[in-house]
């Protein structure tokens, strides 16, 4: 199964169903299919071939959706770049791709410096003049070319992920990867035929692609929001009768904190799902109260594999990452930053270790783009070493507690920052908390907590007593130093976040 087939089937199945809404522009599947064919024909005419990399610096918009499916029709490779990055990082990605065509808009034109290309690509400015004009792409007949034969193992997408260190790395994903991941997403989030979702997650993120492809597979409707704004999101959710959401936790928080919003705005919502960062117990309860979903899903995964695990009753087990996805096999092995442990070094139930994922899954990539050394470090005996730390409880559910490179070693004991942070966040006077290790001559490292109070009356003594008396925090894990800040300095921000 390839993405072009999926799209064609959707157009034939329900041609009159609304596929995409972008402000005042609404396309049925028939209209979308016609424009996709025209753009694909035009791309073919200017020399775009199978396996060519097409880079995009676009916000979510109707043209982005058309271009995505047109690229799939040609067997070319869709390579969206995060336009919030610096020009230097963007050009690193563009040159790493050896992009044949770069598509951008007025707001991202500043990121392109024509003198920095190894070989000059074609340029297409959606909002203005480039080597090609978008309006001209839509004028050709849809019968101007014969689509290439596409195999399920052919690459469909390359997504760039920054990880924890170094330059961004390209993650090549095949048609099979994207189809299987979207199928799993539909199943795990309890989506239904003709669902409607908010298309605000950017297409350079795996969550954005999942929202788009899953809606097409279900002949659903993809409601575009170009930039996230909580109030505008609520307006779209209500007026477009949106049934499912897949967002970052901070987006749910922003919506839930609107003072004039009640659950009546979300009558059609059935599923809310999140990924990419932890969601505190307080925010889980806020979301449960205001959205009142039938399904509340926490998805834990990565760009490389998509699903590791998922929990579809997060309201009952806050912080839980759940059980392996429908295509997955997960293990937790002895943590070792030097990666000397094998997939057979499995820890006992309840003990923290490194999470590894079996790459036999149809959702899993085969290795990083142009980076064999990095692939070798991350893949051992067909297992992907995530670098995440977690444990499995007596129900067989997984909890993620941090990163192996952020583990604090205090007098021979392993301490995981997220575990301590979750306790600190339970204090009613704490707004934000980050825990780090600090070198100590006696102990090796000590636990230091950086706190942003929500109440100026919070004192070190009060917070320390709270930690001492907490039922699940062992005393040796308690912070030995507290730093109060008005905001979190950048040096304390997490390099990677967890579900």
Describe it.
- With 499 residues, the protein is α/β, with parallel strands linked by helices.
- The protein has helices at 3-13, 29-45, 62-74, 87-97, 134-137, 175-188, 206-217, 230-239, 249-256, 281-291, 372-378, 417-425, 460-469; strands spanning 18-22, 25-28, 53-57, 77-80, 101-104, 122-125, 132-133, 155-161, 169-174, 196-199, 221-224, 244-247, 271-274, 295-302, 306-311, 323-324, 330-333, 353-358, 379-380, 383-392, 398-403, 408-410, 413-415, 430-440, 444-453, 481-484.
- Helix 7 links the parallel strand 10 and strand 11.
- Helix 1 runs antiparallel to helix 2 (29-45), helix 2 packs across helix 3 (62-74) and helix 8 crosses helix 9 (249-256).
- The chain is globular and about 75 Å long.
- The chain folds into two domains: 3-392, Rossmann fold (3-Layer(aba) Sandwich), CATH 3.40.50.12780; 407-492, GMP Synthetase, Chain A, domain 3, CATH 3.30.300.
- The longest helix has 17 residues, at 29-45.
- It has a five-stranded parallel beta sheet.
- 27% of the residues lie in helices and 26% in strands.
- It contains 13 helices and 26 strands.
